[in-house]
Design a protein that fits this description.
Blueprint (H helix, E strand, L loop, with lengths): L9 E5 L4 H12 L3 E5 L3 H15 L4 E3 L7 H15 L4 E4 L15 H29 L2 E6 L12 H21 L4 E8 L8 H4 L2 H9 L10 H11 L10 E4 L6
Parallel strand pairs: 1-2, 1-4, 2-3, 4-5, 5-6, 6-7
Helix pairs in contact: 1-8, 3-4, 4-5
């Protein structure tokens, strides 16, 4: 078996109707996993699942929509996945939100709370709902999609960066708690990726120039370029890796 095979695995990926999440789902299906496509909009989830099934076979993808802001919907996501597919071997916490662009001094309390709740607390909820079955099987991989923003300051996405820094620590702490059960928890820290979510950054010529001027590769990334790290962290290739943050940023942070 290939070190990177996901054959026989069930992977739940939040925020997978577009962008990085969609790319991860497509590549995990390519490597043999049954993937669950989940985001807020049922039609968008169904369209991505249908596309994957058309390419990989009727059982490759299942659409189960859920809003990460709602704890009961995340619980239902885990329950319904387990009912339909029997288990969850890989969990990718990719969905996030950033409703505010500007200095921290001007952010509204509700905006700050939403960022922290959706980007940190929702991950905590979803992991808590999923991990008991992984502990029971003594096997599981949990992947949190964080950001290099969690390693840096910013004049415009400071609250988002704070939430992503918290995700690094969430992964480290859970890695300590669950390591004895052979459940691994890691982060991926993308740099600027050409997604709708990051459009405010890469569509602005000045921001794009700043983002790429210090990059050894001289460009921003594509969603599919994050998927390889997710395959690694989900597969046997990373069986001795836990509590880590893999930076995928074209070298910007060096």
């Amino acid at each position: 078996m290939s070190l990177f095979s996901l054959s026989g695995k069930v992977a739940v990926i939040t925020g997978s109707s577009r962008g990085i999440g969609k790319a991860i789902a497509e590549r995990m299906a390519e490597h043999g996993a049954q993937v669950v496509i989940s985001s807020r909009k049922a039609e968008a989830c169904a369209a991505v699942a249908a596309s994957i099934n058309s390419a990989r076979g009727a059982q490759a993808a299942t659409a189960i929509p859920a809003n990460i802001s709602h704890k009961d919907e995340l619980q239902l996501l885990v329950r319904e996945t387990t009912r339909r597919l029997g288990r969850i071997d890989v969990l990718v916490c990719n969905a996030a939100s950033n409703p505010y662009y500007g200095p921290l001094a001007q952010i509204e309390d509700d905006q700050f709370r939403k960022i922290l709740e959706n980007n940190v607390i929702a991950n905590h909820w979803l992991i808590n709902f999923t991990v008991p079955q992984m502990i029971e099987r003594k096997s599981g991989s949990i992947i949190i999609v964080s950001s290099i923003g969690g390693l840096r300051g910013s004049p415009v996405i400071g609250a988002y960066n704070i939430s992503k820094a918290a995700d690094f620590q969430l992964a480290r702490n859970l890695a300590v708690e669950y390591g004895k059960h052979n459940v691994r928890v890691n982060c991926i820290a993308p740099g600027l990726i050409k997604t709708d979510f990051a459009r405010a950054l890469w569509e602005n010529p000045e921001t794009l120039k700043r983002a790429t001027s210090g990059s050894p590769l001289g460009r921003i990334g594509e969603p599919d370029e994050i998927a390889g790290a997710a395959i690694f962290l989900a597969s046997p290739a990373s069986s001795f890796v836990t509590g880590q943050a893999i930076v995928v940023d074209g070298g910007v942070t060096i």
